[in-house]
Automatic annotation (TrEMBL):
<dbReference type="GO" id="GO:0003682">
    <property type="term" value="F:chromatin binding"/>
</dbReference>
<keyword id="KW-0156">Chromatin regulator</keyword>
<keyword id="KW-0238">DNA-binding</keyword>
<dbReference type="GO" id="GO:0000976">
    <property type="term" value="F:transcription cis-regulatory region binding"/>
</dbReference>
<feature type="compositionally biased region" description="Acidic residues">
    <location>
        <begin position="441"/>
        <end position="455"/>
    </location>
</feature>
<keyword id="KW-0804">Transcription</keyword>
<dbReference type="GO" id="GO:0008285">
    <property type="term" value="P:negative regulation of cell population proliferation"/>
</dbReference>
<protein>
    <recommendedName>
        <fullName>Menin</fullName>
    </recommendedName>
</protein>
<dbReference type="GO" id="GO:0045786">
    <property type="term" value="P:negative regulation of cell cycle"/>
</dbReference>
<feature type="compositionally biased region" description="Basic and acidic residues">
    <location>
        <begin position="458"/>
        <end position="477"/>
    </location>
</feature>
<dbReference type="Pfam" id="PF05053">
    <property type="entry name" value="Menin"/>
</dbReference>
<keyword id="KW-0597">Phosphoprotein</keyword>
<keyword id="KW-0805">Transcription regulation</keyword>
<keyword id="KW-0539">Nucleus</keyword>
<keyword id="KW-0678">Repressor</keyword>
<dbReference type="GO" id="GO:0006325">
    <property type="term" value="P:chromatin organization"/>
</dbReference>
<feature type="region of interest" description="Disordered">
    <location>
        <begin position="612"/>
        <end position="654"/>
    </location>
</feature>
Length: 713
């Protein structure tokens, strides 16, 4: 590395965004490797002035009127910091002990120790603006990505060209050696893993690990390493305010790198550029959704579709644009990627991403859609879209499969409650319009066959019991008069059955005869029981008969008057609108069945006839425009959802194959007209009974994560 060259000095001082863009363009097109240390220091100086050391108005209302500024970056400042870094690395590493043209594992470990040993010992995890070498040189602080980048920049200062960054969606390490065949940890993740530095990243480590992307990380070139420090710029001034000038600089630099083709294999950077374009669109540039789709295509083409964030970028964008069907599909696709991994405690960032989607964004989306009257009337919302319902289930199926075989549970009761809340908003016609199948594409046929086998077995057992009881009765009859009387008392109402079963037991042993005898047994039981039923209240059959022939007296429901009246007397009772609506509601002619949509409890709770009209449902020939509400959950009782009327002509079902064990166990409930909320909660939280502390995160933590994944690449 030639150091700080004269050609680079001519670009200083940097007085505006275009001056910085010119410096970066020169570094990327000069024919030599871009100077990582120089560019990182420049960006660090600008970011520090525009965010950390920026004066903020005390009045909240005036914060939006923050005057735009851009710092003047002087040559002597950058040159002094660069010389400090260069001298520190060369003084600390004796290359005579490490001969050879390529870096070795021992050298990588030694350089990472030099960077690590220079850091302050205070704990500053997740603090903002610590990813650049400026932070290292002025405050001896670096975050996880900053340490890995510092190691690569140090090797460039030492003259090595075979050490490069490897980036996952939340971690960084290095690849080195001839053909970049070796890997080594150089930084920490989580709460500090100092002992891992220098260790190789083996296939066993990367298998089903989201932290290492299942062995498909972004292996950077020098130009992509420049892209990583640009993409990692943190725009946050506070938790609620970003730097407009810094955002404009990042956007211009990302477009420069995009035009040169250095973002083609960098999905995270494409997602960041899409976010910036959504905030401040550029003229004659691609739209944000095109950039998000390009990030997904990059992940699919170069990384075996192992990256999750391209889908969450797209889903978040569509959610903000209120394209809820598209957002659900993008989130379901993200869950289809995460299910390839096993969850562990180091996956905190992606867990928080899915936690926000499942427990915040989707429920908020359901509330918003359920309140749109026009969409409910015309059935245009996702609540009436079977494909959206299938994507909703596919999202949770991916989460459940992510949890399977994982050392740490994912789902807890909050997840289950929000699922029940969201799924209850879908119309009944949508739930029954999705054909749910198991992992091998099988529906309920296998379960039905098992039920048939069980029924057949039960029939055989009943027939065998009939044989034994018949033989016992016969033996008791031969023993004497007293025993015969007792036997008659035992069989009593089953006299006819006893005769038939005796004949069957003696004369027939075939399966057909056994089944026939069992049917006759059931018939005799029904007949005998009905013949000896106790007298019932005569008002019940009279009331039922009258309800089918005339109109029920409204006063009777309110605790007074006769149970029913004739149609002529009822029609003359009142002329008010409320009572007329009640008569129409209670009429068997208008509703097709008595007490349509009402229970005794609901009738008794009504304070007036007009309140009772609110319980009315539409006739079966029309859709219900509002989702079925959950019944009150009482302790010890199951929660169900009142089914809505089904459409006359449902469309072809949407076929969805479930893969996770938890979701396959619930497929009948998900496709039924009623939902048992308790069963869903128990199934989803099975072996997942963990409690999470909802402590307030520190200001620094919120500060660093305000812009999604702005630092961790």
């Amino acid at each position: 590395m030639a150091g700080f060259r004269d050609r680079e000095k001519q670009f200083f001082p940097l007085q505006n965004i275009q001056d910085v863009v010119k410096l970066f363009r020169d570094q990327l097109t000069c024919g030599e490797e871009p100077n990582l240390s120089l560019l990182s220091i420049v960006l660090g100086v600008i970011e520090n002035i525009l965010t950390v050391n920026r004066a903020i108005p005390t009045e909240v209302d005036n914060s939006a009127n923050l005057e735009p500024i851009f710092p003047v970056v002087e040559l002597h400042t950058i040159e002094a910091l660069y010389s400090k870094f260069e001298s520190h690395i060369k003084r600390s590493v004796d290359l005579t002990k490490f001969p050879g043209p390529h870096a070795t594992r021992e050298l990588v470990k030694h350089v990472s120790d030099v960077i690590w040993g220079s850091l302050t010992r205070s704990f500053y995890k997740d603090k903002a603006h610590l990813q650049s070498l400026y932070s290292f040189l002025t405050g001896n602080k670096l975050d996880c990505f900053g340490v890995a980048f510092g190691v690569v920049a140090a090797f460039q200062v030492l003259g090595y060209k075979d050490v490069h960054l490897a980036l996952s969606e939340d971690h960084a390490w290095v690849v080195f050696g001839e053909n970049l065949a070796e890997t080594a940890e150089v930084t920490w993740h989580g709460k500090g893993n100092e002992d891992k530095r220098g260790q190789p990243i083996t296939a066993g480590t990367t298998e089903k690990s989201w932290l290492y992307l299942n062995g498909y990380p972004v292996i950077c070139t020098r130009e992509m390493e420049v892209s990583s420090i640009v993409s990692g710029i943190n725009l946050a001034i506070t938790t609620t305010m970003d730097s407009v000038e810094l955002g404009s600089l990042q956007q211009e630099l990302l477009w420069l790198l995009y035009d040169m083709g250095h973002l083609k294999k960098y999905p995270m950077a494409l997602g960041n550029l899409g976010d910036l374009e959504e905030i401040t669109p550029s003229e004659n540039r691609k739209k944000p959704i095109e950039l998000f789709q390009e990030a997904i295509a990059s992940s699919q083409e170069y990384y075996n579709n192992q990256h999750v964030y391209p889908y969450t970028y797209l889903g978040g964008y569509l959610y903000r644009k209120q394209d809820y069907n598209g957002a659900l599909q993008a989130w379901a696709d993200a869950a289809s990627v995460i299910k390839k991994y096993n969850y562990n405690r180091e996956d905190e960032e992606i867990y928080k991403e899915f936690l926000e989607i499942a427990n915040d964004l989707i429920p908020s989306m359901m509330k918003h859609v359920a309140g749109e009257n026009a969409a409910r009337i015309h059935h245009t919302s996702l609540l009436y879209n079977p494909e959206s319902y299938a994507n909703f289930l596919r999202f949770y199926d991916g989460i459940c499969e992510w949890e399977e075989d994982s050392p740490t549970p994912v789902l807890h009761i909050t997840w289950a409650k929000q699922l029940v809340f969201s799924i209850s908003k879908f119309d009944i016609s949508v739930r029954i319009g999705v054909d749910l199948k198991g992992e091998n594409g099988d529906g309920d046929e296998s379960e039905d066959s098992e039920d048939d086998e069980n029924s057949s077995g039960e029939t055989k057992d009943k027939n065998q019991n009939v044989k034994e009881e018949s033989s016992r009765n016969k033996t008791d009859g031969e023993d004497g008069e007293q025993n015969t009387t007792k036997a008659r008392g035992r069989v009593g109402r089953q006299k006819k059955r006893s005769v038939s079963t005796k004949t069957s037991a003696v004369n027939g042993n075939s399966e057909e005869e056994k089944i026939k005898s069992a049917i006759e047994e059931l018939e005799s039981k029904v007949g005998g029981e009905e013949s000896e039923k106790e007298d019932i209240n005569p008002n019940i059959p009279d009331l039922a008969k009258a309800c089918s022939e005339s109109i029920l007296n409204p006063e009777f429901l309110l605790g007074a008057g006769e149970p029913f009246t004739t149609a002529t007397t009822t029609t003359s009772v009142t002329t008010s609108n409320a009572e007329a609506s009640l008569d129409e509601f209670l009429s068997s002619k208008s509703n097709g069945s008595p007490f349509m949509g009402m229970t005794v409890d609901s009738m008794l709770k009504a304070e007036s006839p007009s309140d009772m009209v609110n319980f009315r449902k539409r006739p079966p020939s029309t859709f219900s425009h509002t989702p079925s509400p959950l019944l009150d959950n009482r302790e010890g009782q199951s929660e169900t959802i009142i089914p809505s009327p089904t459409p006359n002509e449902p469309g072809p079902p949407v076929i969805l194959c479930l893969h996770s064990q938890k979701m396959k166990g619930l497929k009948k409930i998900f496709a039924s007209s009623k939902l048992n909320a308790s069963a869903i909660k128990l199934q989803l939280t099975a072996q997942s009974q963990v409690h999470f502390k909802h402590s307030k995160r520190s200001t620094d933590s919120d500060f660093s994560t305000h812009r999604k994944r702005s630092r961790r690449e």
